[in-house]
Amino acid sequence: MTVVETKITRRDTLKWMAIATPLIMIGACYAPEDDEIKISSEIPEKYRKLVKWPDINIPDVTHEGYGKDPDLILPKTPWPLLLNAMQLNACVALIDLLVPADDKGPAASEVGVQHFMNEWVSAPYPSQSEDRELIIPGLQWLDDEAKKRGNVVFASLPEVEQIAILDDLSDGFDKAPSVAVRQMKPMQFFGKMRRLSLGGYYTTAHGMEDIAYIGNEAIAGDYPGPSDEALKHLSEHLAKVGLKLP
Amino acid sequence: MSDKFDVIIAGSGAGGGMAAYVLAKAGVKVLMLEAGRDYKPLEETPMFNSNEEAPLRGASTPDKDFGYYDSAIGGWSVEGEPYTSEDGVDFKWFRARMLGGRTNHWARHSPRFGPYDFKGKSRDGYGVNWPLSYDDLESWYTKTEKIVGVCGTNEGLENHPNSPTGVLQPPPKPRAYELMIKAACDDLDIPCIPAHYAILTRDLDDRKACFYATPCIRGCSIGAAFQTTTSLIPAARETGNLTLKADSTVYEIICDDGGKAIGVRYIDGKTGERLAVNAPYIVLAASACETARILLMSKHKKHPNGLGNSSNHVGKNLMDTVGTNISGQYPMLENRPRYNEEGMNSPHMYIPWWGYEQQKKGELDFPRGYHIEMSGGWVTAPDVGLGWLPELNGGGYGKKIKADIRRYFGSTIWMGGRGEMLPNEDCYCALDPEVKDKNGLPVLKFFWKWSKHELNQVAHMQKTGRAIIERLGGKALSEEKPPEELITAPGSIIHEVGTTRMGFTPQDSVVNKDGRCWDANNVMIADGGVFASNPHKNPTLTIMALSMRNSQKLAKEIKGARRR
Ligand SMILES: Cc1cc2nc3c(=O)[nH]c(=O)nc-3n(C[C@H](O)[C@H](O)[C@H](O)COP(=O)(O)OP(=O)(O)OC[C@H]3O[C@@H](n4cnc5c(N)ncnc54)[C@H](O)[C@@H]3O)c2cc1C
Ligand code: SF4
């Protein structure tokens, strides 16, 4: 017998996110297996050389969530933040490499994505708790790896060396020479941080401007529909596959 | 309570809200008991709040299943009110504990059922017929649409009835991606037309037309998106005939020695006190499963299986809508010229069922229809889930992934298949013999098994969706899998109906065609429990049309009795 109480698994949440908000279509779910990095023949030397995933204490989060009936007009985040200065340092360095400044907008830390990360990993919900178990050791791992390579914490590492670490992670995650590599904790950490920092970045006012989102503005009268330019673009692309604009 | 009431209504959602409106307007004294708290959309709707202001950027959590700003108080779980499912069953039961119930955040897709939908058994031999026909309900649909405010077009399609001229408000223009899907549909000989939504595009009474800017799931404080809390309930209150008591959970119908219903018992949610109130008529509209639960809990020597349950049909015939998701990414939507695509936040276009002829010829391996809804593009502001997009393009990091986000954001479209499920013996709810809620009341336990009809239908939905994606040169975002793995969890489409179905005889049903319990003529059921079948067309407009029709009859009866 299954009793449905307030416990909903992360899978359920994801499933519903996919149903309710198509924009949150989740591709593959990360399901890291062992805490140990699998040292097997499937894992090339380059990845085997990475430092061991740290076995550190992850603080228990006993704080309540915002509850079933929070104030929607003046939202508040009730849980205390967990990341210490060291961890935030590593976090800032990493998210600014993931989401740097460019001609369309500032770097992630300039719009406070590290605070969003802190809020996220400190939240008492199942999905965030799962992320916490990956991200808190992950930030430590970054420093460990940096110390191995350059005797300083990640944030103090020269940028070329930071990038060398990121390249290893990105190769292991994105080019996935094997499932075993992709499932290594550092790779999972990288993939998670990338998703979250982009999510945190593009939900800010700056991010929305960067993405050129138009909306949230009351329109008087009828909905105007697509612009002529948008229709022309669509029509041309439809023609390429032999279809007509209705 | 010292006042005298003609009718007690349990529940203030679609069914209860409409009943209160009709009865109060007719001069009947109504007491409405609502389990949830009072809810004031004018003050509480975070229409323009940004994701950035919300905890976790508004992401969904078990506290707020559809995101922080979803107006639902409750959701997939309700504090202190668990439910259970049979082993291996993952029934999803979405409940809202608030004035207005789930009408505060429903998606508002509001099609009429058609003539075939009431007579399925006569057409294909499955399920049961309704004791009502489309003709019986037609004028009630029209009256309901006028009060609710529904936009859409009359397309004259088979089994998709037109509304009389002037009833529907004009639909908003299609968005670019909707035109794209329609282009593929035109080529594949599939219809794609404006959907009917309970959203105003013209002012109606003191409710304002939509301004195309805010997610309707948060509620709509200008009253454009229909919810009973900005329309039916305030109007009913204005008559002076409606007394509303929030935080009041009805748990039993009181019967006299002869077994006649004379009132209800309820729990004051604030004090925990158990109270009782009497009235000559009782309307149950606590939502299909909760209403069944109240009946099952109303045990009496004359009603040993629970009130209204001499047929043993209470809780049985439970149906949800068959659902499956087909999402695609469309290169032709990448890097396209920006424009305001928000619109009324819901689909402006959808794919209605078109396979009647094929089904008649026996060419399809499932007997009933489905439709496809769609969303995506730039309908809502960027949310925290968009970080996966660069994975479409090899991932990486740095400036490259920022460019990826600009390129891909708005290029994914979700399609949702929504199909008619047939009732079957394995799908029902009953009182759990062991588990109790915070009030010590037995909770519901759910039982479920899809039949081949639903699974075959899902396979067909997937085929259709994938054909559309392919025709447009898009890429499906999920793998092909057997339908068992692609059908949404039972209950999750939130169209649960049938648990107190209407029928022709007291042996095969719980209520008659007027929604009255065969076993207790002064008890009327006004929610989706009374559905004899669950057409794929979303249920709420029909819940309201039936509630209006049956409440009107009830009002006549009450006023007739007064005169005598
Ligand atoms: C996200 C979402 C999207 C949806 N989209 C659509 C759509 O597009 N189209 C469509 O047709 N339908 C849609 N629905 C379904 C629609 O909301 C329901 O069909 C409709 O609200 C049912 O009306 P109801 O009156 O039966 O129940 P509800 O609206 O749920 O109202 C029942 C009320 O009764 C109260 N209650 C419960 N138990 C008791 C008790 N014991 N005593 C007193 N009061 C009680 C509840 O608190 C609630 O307020 C959607 C639902 C959700 C959640
Ligand atoms: S989009 Fe329109 S109907 Fe929906 S909430 Fe906003 S104003 Fe209301």
How does this model look, in words?
The complex is a heterodimer of chains A (246) and B (564). By secondary structure, chain A is an all-alpha fold. Chain A contains 10 helices and 1 strand; from the N terminus they run βαααααααααα. Chain A is globular and about 60 Å long. The model of chain A is unreliable at 6-38 (pLDDT under 50). Chain B folds into 2 domains: 1-44 and 84-149 and 226-320 and 426-445 and 496-564, FAD/NAD(P)-binding domain (3-Layer(bba) Sandwich), CATH 3.50.50.60; 165-222 and 322-419 and 451-486. Chain B is built from 12 helices and 20 strands. In chain B, the strands form 6 sheets. In chain B, strands 7-2-1-11-20-19 form a 6-stranded mixed β-sheet. A 4-stranded antiparallel β-sheet of chain B has the order 14-15-12-18, covered by helices on one side. The two termini of chain B are 26 Å apart. The mean pLDDT of chain B is 97. At the A-B interface, β1, α1, α4, α5 and α6 of A face β3, β4, α5, β12 and α9 of B. Iron/sulfur cluster binds next to loops of chain B.
Ligand kinds: flavin-adenine dinucleotide, iron/sulfur cluster
Global shape of chain B: globular
Gyration radius of chain B, rounded: 23 Å
Q: Extract low-pLDDT stretches of chain B.
A: none
The number of domains of chain A is 1
**Which radius of gyration of chain A do the C-alpha atoms yield?**
21 Å
Helix content of chain B: 10-25%
Uncertain ranges of chain A: 6-38
Mean pLDDT of chain B: 97
Fraction of residues in β-strands of chain A: under 5%
Helix content of chain A: 40-55%
The helix count of chain B comes to 12
Question: What string, H for helix and E for strand, traces the elements of chain A in order?
Answer: EHHHHHHHHHH
Structural class of chain A: mainly alpha
Overall geometry of chain A comes to globular
CATH homolog superfamily of the largest domain in chain B: FAD/NAD(P)-binding domain
